[in-house]
Structure formats: structure tokens, C-alpha cells
Design goal:
Elements: H1 2-16, H2 37-42, H3 55-70, H4 78-81, H5 85-91, E1 97-102, H6 111-118, H7 122-137, E2 147-150, H8 155-161, H9 165-177, E3 186-188, H10 200-208, E4 211-213, H11 215-223, E5 228-236, H12 240-250, E6 258-266
Parallel strand pairs: 1-6, 2-5, 5-6
Antiparallel strand pairs: 3-4
The structure holds zinc ion.
Zinc ion binds near residues 23, 24, 26, 35 and 39.
Length: about 270
Amino acid sequence: MKGIVLRGLRAAGEILLPRQCITCGQRLLLEEKHLCLECLADLPQTYFWTMSHNPMADKFNEVIQKTLEEGGSPGNDCATNTSDAAEDSRHEHYAYASALFFYHSEAQYRLIPYQIKYHGNIRAGRYFGRMLGNRLASSELFEDVDMVVPVPLHWTRKWKRGYNQAEVIAGAVAEVLGVPMRTDLLKRRKRTVTQTKMNVEDKRKNVAEAFVSIPSLAGIASENGIRHLLLIDDVFTTGSTLMACFTALRTVFPPSVRISVATLGFVGGR
Ligand SMILES: [Zn+2]
């Protein structure tokens, strides 16, 4: 009986406030959530969770290597790293990386992260976060993840937007994986300027110093037997934002702790 009433209420809600498919705009059926069945079936999934080496992981590990060779980090301990960056890099775990779908700039699927980030569609954030979480949960690469950390927003931006989209996604992923999410280990210390018109190198410099880890808190987490940490953002473009977070976390977590990354969208072709 209760089910019938709820269904009736939902149907009435549909008439007053019709829900639309995020990507094609078509009116959704009662059973459909955020995407119509056709768009859901056509979602350009990456299947990166089934392969340790994939375009996203290769790109991210390349950025790690580059940073190591420059000697600045991980560890931010220039004195030891510059002398023998190659030696250090051998101790660095290969970071696993996975995204739920390909994010072609011209394709309608870019509207998913856009809706979550700019239109307050938190429900969609949780929905696609859970979908990502389910893919990661099915993967042996991510089976030993014991903590999820979202890329933080600067507090003024979070205050204005009311939420951090990476945190919404990360919360859903953590729930599916059955591990804690920690939002207190990383802090964004300066507001980065809008990056849309910058080249890759400028973008990297713009965010490189933007994150710090909170040593006291992360230190405790580190001592609690954390082996595999998963960083979450909404979209992976150049990897510079995630790399800046990686670097900040590495100042506290030793290289024996694997730091992997996962996002909803991956910018790149199939
Ligand atoms: Zn659709």
C-alpha cells in the first residue's frame, strides 16, 4: 500500500516537475534516474578499472615521474630527493587510476560533471559516485583501498557553492567500498585562478602549491595501517590537480602507501 502511495506521489511530482535526462534532455520515465535508458546504455565507459595500465594511469604516473625527476617531491624533501630522484622513484608504487566514462569535450556526457558542479545536482553526484564505486569494488586493483580522500575546494568556494562536488562523489564511493572518507587530511590553501585558458605547464604551476596536508591528522591516519589511499575528483584533465594533492599527501604518507586516483570523467579519446 505504502509503495502504491509513494509511486502515486512520484507520478504526481512528474507532472508538476518533469525530470529530464541530463545528457539528451528527454523526459525521464519513472524508473529512469538522471539518464534515459538509451543514454545510460551508450555511456562511454572507460573500463580502466579492469587494467592497471591504461591511458589515465600512464598519464598520471608520467606526471609523478616528472615531479620526482624535478626533485621537489614526493616528500617535499628536496635535500634527499634531488640527489637521487631515480632511487626514490623506484620506491614509488605505480598509481592505479580509473574513471567511469570518457569525457569528450564535444559529447553530451560532459553535462554530467557540469550538472554536478554548477547546477547543484547533488543527487546525480551521489548516483554516479555509487556507479563509480561499484566499478571499483569489482576491481582487484582497488580491493585493498582503505581510505578515500576527495580533492578539497577552497573554503570560500565551498561556502559559495554550498558543497564540494568531489566530496559528494567521494562520499558515495567510500560508502560502496565500505571504507572511511577523510576530508580533514588535505586543505586548499590558496584559490587558484580559473585555468580554462592556461596551457598544461601553467596549469600545473598554478595548482602545484595549492594543497597542503595536515600533518598531525594525516600522521595519525598513516600510523593506523593505511596501505592504499584513493584520491577522488570529478574530472581528470591534465592530472595537475590530483598530482598537487598526491604531493601534499606524500609529505606525510610514506611511498609504501599506494595513492591511486579515480574520477567520473576522463578527458581523452577511446
Ligand atoms: Zn538521454
